[in-house]
C-alpha cells in the first residue's frame, strides 16, 4: 500500500432546503479543480439548483455528483447539516485491508459553541457514552483563528457591505412614513445585483445625486454612526466610500446638526470608537487594556454622546455578557428623548449588523430575515410618548452576496482543507493549520474537546427534555421519570446563584434544606424543579434521610458540620461538594471515601475554588509550552465596590461575617523572594502587605492566607527549593488590617471569654476590661484613656471614631441592631460578629466586588537568564448586580458547575480532593466563562510584584 493510492473524498454538501436564501457554497469550482488535479482526491457534490454555482461547473471542474453524503470522508458545508441528512457512521478507507473504516469529519458553522438549545440534538449526534475512535469529528469555522487570535475563516466583511445596503433601504422606508422621500429610496438590496462591483456602481450613482442635489432639508444633516473595528466594520466603511462621505468626530456632532449652514450635499460619518463613549464608573478615562481586564468598571454613554445626533446607526460591535451594553432599554428612552430635541428623524433607524439579540443593544428582540429585513419595535419599558425605532437585524446578511462571499470563503478555507486532506492521507500537512483545526474541533472520538467540555451540560439537558417528551407522548406520566436529585444543605448568602444554575436542568431537581423556612422557600418558590425542606442540622437522623434520597449533596453549612455530612455521605455512598477548605477531620476520611466509591469534593468556591481552577489551567498551559515556573503569587478578595466602601474597615459582608473574623486569626506560611516566612495568628494583622500592585485604579493591601507552601506540590510547581516565591493572600482596602488589629487588641475578636451586655455601647469597654483585667469607667473619656494604654493616641482616636460609627462607643449613639440579636452572655467575637453583620451589610442598590489575581513568573525550561523570564497574569474582577452579589456568584456558581459535573458522571476521582482534575476544573472555568466570569490572561516582561511585596512586608516589620 502506498500513500498515493489512498483517495479521500471531500463532499460539498447542499445547504438545508428550508433556508431559502442560502445560496453560498464553501468550495468554488475553481478550488475543486485544484483539489482534483493536485491533491489526488475525489470531490463529490450534492446537486442543488439554488446554489450560486450551477452543478455543471462543478462537474466540469472534476467533481462527481452523488445524491447522499454516504461516501464522504470530509463533509464541507456552510450552515448546520439537516439532521435527516447527517451521516455519522465511519466511512470505508480505500487502500486499507478489507472492512477497515475511518471516522468522518464535518466542517460547518454548527451554532453549538454557546450551548444553543436548538442545536444540541445536532451536537449529541457526535457524542458517545464512552470514547469511540470511529465517531465523527466536528469542526466549527467560527473557531478557526490565526496566531494573533483573530478569526481567519468567515463572512464578516460581506455582512458589513450587505448590512449597509439593507439599512439604507430600511431608512428610506422609514423616511417615507414621515412623508419625506430620501435619495436612498433607490438603494439596491444586495441580492438584486449579481456582484459587489455592480452594487458599488448603483450606490455611487446615489452618491452623485446627493452631491448634486443634496439630502432633504426637512431631515437636516444626514449623519451615519458606525461602531466596531473588525471585519464587519471594515466592510461597512468600504461600501460607504461610494457616497460623498465627510468624517466627523463625536465631539463635533452637536455643532454639526444644529448649524443651519451645514452642507447638505455631504453624508457625515462618525465612526465611534470605545474611547468615544465608554467611561469608567469612577470617572476615569478609557484604556483598552484596563477595559478588557475590568469591564464591569465601565459604562456606555453612547445614548447621550452619539445616538441623539444620528440619522442612521450601524452597529458593528459584538458583545459578551460580562461587558457593558452599548445601550440598555433605559438608555434607548434617553437617546430618543434627546433626539427629539435635536431634530426630526434622529435615531429612528438602526442597522444592527452584529445581530446580538438582547445583547449590546438590549432592545433588539429578534433577528429579521432577507424576506422581511426590517421591522418596527418599541420595548415595553419605552414611554408611550416616544416613537418606535425601525430595526434591520438580518442574521444571514452574507447570503445576499453569494458569489463574492463564496469566492472569498473558499479561498481562506482552502489551506485548512488541504491540511485536513493531508492528515487523512498520512502526509505531513501544515502544522500551523493542523493546530488551528484541532483548536476548532468541538467533538472527536465521541467526546467533547478542550474548552468545549462544558457543553456536556446543555447536551444532557436536551437529552432529558427529549426523554420526557418521548415518555409523555407514549402516555406515561412524566412524574414516573426519575430525575437526578441534588440536596443542598444550607440556604445562606451564596445559595441563590447555585440554585438558579442547577434549576436550568430540567432533568435535575434540587432540595434546599435549612433551618430558616423563609430562606429555603424564597430560594425555591420560583422553580418548578426545586423544593424546600426544614432541617435542624443537629438532627442527624433527618439529615441522613435526605442524603439517602439524593444523588449529589452540596453542603453550604458552616465548616464544623462538614465532617458529619461527609460521614453520612460515605455511609449512603453519595458524592459531596463543598466550597470550604479541606480540614484535618475531612482529610482523615479520604481512604474510607475511596473504599465507598465516594467523592468528597472540597475547595470549589471562590477562594478556595476559582483560584485553584484558574491557576491549574494556566499552569497546565505553561507546562505544555515547556515553561518552568519560578514564582507563584495569588491574591483574592471580596470587597465593596469602590463607590460603596466609605465605611470602617472599607469592608461589607457578602458572606459569613464570622468566617471573615476567623480568617484574621489564622497564622500563615509562605516563601517570598527566596525567603521562607512564617507569621503567627497573633501577628497576622500587623505583618501585612501594604501595597498589592495588581491594578492601576484600585489601591489594595493584602494578608497572607494560611499555609501557601503545600501548593508547590498541589499545583505541581516543582521542588520548593527551586522556587523563589509561593504566596497566596487575601485582598483588602488600605486601613483594614490596622483597624482590625486594633479591634483585636481591644478584645473584640476574643472567642474564649464571655460577657453580659445591657447596652451595645458597653461591648468595646467590657471587651477591653477582659483584656487588661481592670475596670474602665463607662464614660467616653475613661474609655479613650484606657485605649491609649494599649495603642498610640492617634490610633486610639481613629478607633474610637470607628466604634462611634458602629454604635459601640461609650456615650455614643446606640447601635441600631435588629431586635433578633440576643444580649445573652456570649464571647465578644460573637457579639461583634452580630454588630458587623448588621452595620456593614449591603444596602439596597449597593454592590460588592470580587478581585482575583494570579502572577506566575516563568522561563523556558532550558534557560536560566533573567531576560528570558515572562510574567503571566490571570485576573478576574466581578461586580454584584441586582440579581446576586459578586461573592454569591463566584462561590455559588463553581459549586453548581462542579456538582453538575459530578452528577453527570464527568468526574472519576474518589476520596477527599480539591478541584485538581483537569476535566473538572475545565468544566467549571467553561461554565464561569458562559456566566460572564472569565479570567483574563496576559503576558509581559519585567520583575513582577515580588520586590514590592517583600519591601512592604519588611517595612511593616520594622514599624512593629
Task: Explain what you see.
The protein is globular, with a radius of gyration of 32 Å. Helix content is 34%, strand content 17%. Helix 16 (517-524) links the parallel strand 21 (508-514) and strand 22. The relative contact order is 0.08. Strands 3-2-1-4-7-8-18-19 form an eight-stranded mixed beta sheet. The protein has 31 helices and 34 strands. The longest helix is centred in the middle third of the chain and has 24 residues, at 402-425. With 960 residues, the chain is an alpha/beta fold.
What is the number of strand segments?
Answer: 34
Computed structural class? alpha/beta
**What portion of residues belong to β-strands?**
15-25%
Shape: globular
- Rounded to an integer in angstroms, the radius of gyration calculated over CA atoms is 32 Å
Main β-sheet description: 8 strands, mixed
- Low-pLDDT parts are 1-6, 476-480
Spatial gap, N to C terminus: 80 Å
Mean pLDDT: 88
The number of helices is 31
Give the spatial strand order of the biggest sheet: 3-2-1-4-7-8-18-19
Fraction of residues in helix: 25-40%
Concise structural overview:
The protein has 960 residues and is of the alpha/beta class. The chain is built from 31 helices and 34 strands.
Q: What are the key terms here?
A:
single chain; globular; 31 helices; eight-stranded mixed beta sheet; alpha/beta; 960 residues
Furnish the topology, listing elements before pairings:
Blueprint: E1 10-12, H1 29-38, E2 44-45, H2 55-61, E3 64-65, E4 74-76, E5 91-92, E6 101-102, E7 105-108, H3 120-124, E8 137-140, H4 156-177, H5 196-213, E9 222-227, H6 231-240, E10 245-247, H7 253-258, E11 267-272, H8 274-277, E12 278-280, H9 288-293, E13 298-300, H10 302-305, E14 312-315, H11 329-342, E15 349-352, E16 374-377, E17 389-392, H12 402-425, H13 431-439, E18 441-444, E19 447-448, H14 456-473, E20 484-489, H15 495-502, E21 508-514, H16 517-524, E22 530-534, H17 540-548, E23 552-555, H18 562-572, E24 575-578, H19 584-587, H20 590-595, E25 599-601, H21 610-624, E26 627-640, H22 657-663, E27 668-672, E28 675-679, E29 701-704, H23 711-714, E30 725-732, H24 736-746, H25 763-772, H26 780-787, H27 793-806, H28 828-839, E31 848-860, E32 870-879, H29 886-903, E33 911-913, H30 918-930, E34 936-940, H31 946-959
Parallel strand pairs: 1-2, 1-4, 2-3, 4-7, 7-8, 9-11, 9-14, 10-11, 14-15, 15-17, 20-21, 20-23, 21-22, 23-24, 24-25, 25-33, 26-30
Antiparallel strand pairs: 5-6, 8-18, 12-13, 16-17, 18-19, 26-31, 27-28, 29-30, 31-32, 32-34
Helix pairs in contact: 1-2, 4-6, 12-13, 15-29, 17-18, 21-30, 29-30
